[in-house]
Amino acid sequence: MTRGRPPGDEPTCVLAVRVPVALREELDRYLDALETRLGLKASRNEIIRHALRVFLAAQQEEARPMPPQGFRNP
């Protein structure tokens, strides 16, 4: 995977997302495992973009939006 901004002419924006430290640490362990076991170097941003795409695609297939598990309504 390439690092940095996604290639292409598609406009992008920056989203600031606050996550619990434990979730960030779990993500970092996953990234370390990708590199150690598979030799793939990926960034947090790449994995988050991929996870968001997969989540939204799954929601579209179910035909109705559902809040993520553990979602709290403010």
3D architecture notes:
By secondary structure, the protein is mostly helical. The protein has a domain at 21-61. 49% of the residues lie in helices and 0% in strands. It contains 2 helices and no strands. It has helices at residues 21-38, 44-61. The model has no long low-confidence stretch (mean pLDDT 84).
- Give the number of DSSP strands: 0
Uncertain regions spanning at least 5 consecutive residues: none
State mean pLDDT (0 to 100 scale): 84
> What is the count of helical runs?
2
Q: What is the gyration radius calculated from CA atoms?
A: 15 Å
Strand fraction equals under 5%
Q: What is the subunit organization of this protein?
A: single chain
Helices and strands, in order, run as HH
Q: Shape from CA axes? A: globular
Distance between the termini: 36 Å
Helix content: 40-55%
Main sheet makeup: none
SS-derived structural category = mainly alpha
Layout of strands and helices, then pairs:
Blueprint: H1 21-38, H2 44-61
Give a nutshell description of this structure.
The protein has helices at about 20-40, 45-60.
Primary descriptors:
single chain, 74 residues, mainly alpha, 0% strand
